[in-house]
Design a protein that fits this description.
Blueprint lengths: L3 H4 L26 H17 L21 H10 L11 H5 L5 H7 L40 E2 L12 E4 L5 E9 L2 E10 L5 E5 L9 E12 L1 E3 L22 H6 L16 H13 L2 E4 L10 E2 L11 E4 L31 E6 L5 H10 L15 E4 L5 H10 L2 E4 L1 H8 L5 H6 L4 E3 L11 H14 L7 H7 L2 H6 L17 E5 L7 H4 L6 E6 L2 E6 H7 L8 E5 L2 E5 L12
Parallel strand pairs: 1-4, 3-6, 7-8, 8-9, 10-11, 11-12, 12-13, 13-14
Antiparallel strand pairs: 2-6, 3-4, 4-5, 6-15, 15-16, 16-17, 17-19, 18-19
């Protein structure tokens, strides 16, 4: 199949850790003995741990195959180019010659920790050995746990060898499966979808709708359809583009070949309807029902930034909100940019701009210029906005986002591939910033939402001490993106009154939310948008869809028979 090369892309997880202890040479060596220096270094490390900030420059859980995320040269560049000062403060010549903190340290505490004079740090106070492991603060341990699943004991799963048993009925649909509800998982629960495409019942007994077509499943998880919070669908037909060991400080480095970097060729966009449809179908095969993709086609998955998939409201998607498509960057000041006017955005329900895609001062300055009207900036950070990427922010910037109700759209795989770094997601979450998830594009991002979920799941396990629960990760791809796009009154959850945008996953091996987080494309057994089944397992759709054996096209997906039912009435005709 033409999308086969995407399915075969392998991502090896690689990591580069730079210890704060490597900064010892920044401490004056002539005035301190080795014991005191060691004590000070330890205290700095403990302070950073206590603040629960990740102190690695790169967390390479989602990089390209077989490549170091950041080379030694890149390490030096980051150290040299990223001073620990707020944007706008020009370092002196003396300061430029000294070792300067890494970008990650700047993001964590805003600057280099001050080293106390020798006489203020008595020797006897220096610890003689490392603090015991059990005394290290555990702030990154999740404070929440996923709710214990509830069950419907009177609902007996079908005695079938296949995943689901289908009984043909009327135009409405009655599901029985494990249901992802806003309150947690309801095992062997039921969901009824009426003929208009809306959910009318979620619970243990929706049997009043006996005339419905019944899809009763033995071990399947019915989830809200995944929402892709960020993509460039015009590049959907382009394969991943490797760039060796090179990592970049700002998006214009790889876009334009600036600052001594090699330009990454994307092959150009394909704006044809066929290419957009192909990209949306690929997303649908991964369980997605909506996308914010800077393009698209009608009647496949919902295009929330175009016609909203028939939903009320409007969303403004902006790739260059600072008017910098030509590649201009500025470490300080906002007057050289042509920033979108905040007043022009009042007519939109939601606003999704690319901001701070990079790890240097210029990237951080983009946030300064879009979060305040001071100094020629614009107040674009509002509760209508979701900033895409927002990598180059420090803790105080994230606090500003939280105070304004601005969400962030996280595209971890592409961030790490291009910059060797991504947002400090636990910090954003702790400060109250809503986190949504997006694939970005096929050049350096994920082929579908399942792959992006697996990327952040790996980061969460290996670098965040499992800070996020499984449910919280799934929420980033469902209800959080609905909230960020201000469509949560219509989609994003399995709840009575919402449109039935649903995906059904095989849960025979991977249980509960892991059925989504560990899913492959062959594990997606049904995708429904606004009550219309568009894709799924061949044996389910053959009966569940009218004329399913003749009106639907059967395809092989990784050895599993699936069907596309894209002819006839579109889902959008059901949306009022």
């Amino acid at each position: 199949m033409m999308y086969g090369h995407f399915l075969g892309v392998r991502i090896f997880w690689v990591t580069r850790v730079i210890s704060i202890a490597n900064k010892r040479e920044a401490i004056p060596t002539e005035s301190m003995n080795e014991e005191l220096k060691e004590a000070i270094v330890r205290r700095i490390v403990y302070l950073i741990l206590a603040l629960s900030f990740v102190f690695t420059l790169n967390i390479g859980a989602c990089g390209r195959p077989g490549k170091e995320i950041v080379t030694e040269t890149a390490k030096e560049q980051v150290d040299e180019k990223t001073p620990g000062k707020e944007a706008g403060d020009e370092p002196t010549q003396t300061e430029k010659k000294q070792d300067e903190p890494t970008q990650t340290e700047q993001n964590n505490d805003g600057g280099t920790p001050e080293v106390p004079p020798k006489e203020e740090a008595p020797k006897e106070e220096a610890p003689k050995e490392d603090t015991p492991k059990e005394e290290v603060p555990k702030e990154d341990t999740p404070k929440e746990q996923d709710p214990t699943p509830k069950s419907c004991p009177n609902n007996t799963p079908p005695a079938v060898s296949t995943l689901c048993e289908v009984t043909k009925g009327g135009t409405s649909t009655l599901f029985q499966a494990h249901i992802v509800t806003p309150d947690g998982i309801l095992e062997n629960g039921q969901v009824h979808v009426d003929g208009s495409g809306k959910i009318t019942c979620v619970g243990c007994n929706c049997a009043a709708n006996d005339g419905a077509t019944k899809i009763f499943c033995k071990d399947a998880l019915l989830s809200p359809g995944l929402i892709n919070g960020h993509d460039h669908i015009g590049w959907a037909t382009r394969p991943p583009t490797p760039h060796g060991d090179e990592r970049f400080d700002h998006r214009h480095d790889w876009r334009k070949g600036k600052n001594g970097h090699k330009k990454v060729s994307s092959g150009g966009s394909d704006t044809s309807k066929e290419a957009a449809a192909w990209g949306e179908i690929r997303m649908m095969m991964g369980g997605a029902t909506s996308i914010i993709g800077s393009g698209g086609t009608s009647a496949l998955i919902r295009n929330l930034d175009r016609d909203r998939g028939g939903l009320p409201g409007s969303l403004r998607y902006s790739t260059f909100p600072l008017g910098d498509s030509g590649g201009s960057t500025h470490d300080t000041g906002c007057t050289s940019y042509k920033i979108e006017q905040a007043s022009s955005l009042s007519k939109y329900t939601a606003y999704f701009p690319h901001v701070s895609e990079g790890v240097n001062l210029a990237a951080r300055n983009e946030f300064v210029c879009t979060s305040s009207s001071a100094g020629g900036g614009q107040e674009l950070a509002t509760n209508k906005a979701a900033f895409i990427h927002a990598i180059g922010l420090n803790a105080s910037d994230v606090s500003v986002m939280a105070s304004k109700g601005t969400a962030v759209i996280w595209s971890a795989r592409t961030n790490i591939d291009l910059y060797g770094h991504t947002i400090l997601a636990p910090m954003y979450h702790r400060m109250g910033v809503l986190i949504g998830l997006g694939t970005d594009w096929s050049i350096s991002g994920s082929m579908n939402m399942l792959r992006e979920l697996q990327c952040i799941d790996s980061l969460n396990k290996n670098h965040y001490n499992k800070f996020f629960t499984d449910r919280q990760l799934v929420d980033m791809a469902t209800i959080n993106n609905a909230k960020a796009s201000h469509t949560e009154r219509y989609i994003g959850a399995i709840k009575a009154g919402l449109y039935a945008d649903l995906s059904l996953f095989d849960a025979r091996t991977n249980k509960a939310y892991r059925a989504i987080l560990d899913a492959k494309v062959e594990d997606v057994h049904l995708v429904m948008i606004s009550g219309k089944i568009l894709y799924g397992a061949s044996d389910i759709l053959a009966t569940a869809v009218k004329d399913g054996t003749t009106a639907c096209e059967e395809v092989d997906v990784c050895g599993k028979k699936k069907r596309f039912c894209l002819k006839g009435e579109s889902f959008s005709s059901k949306v009022s």
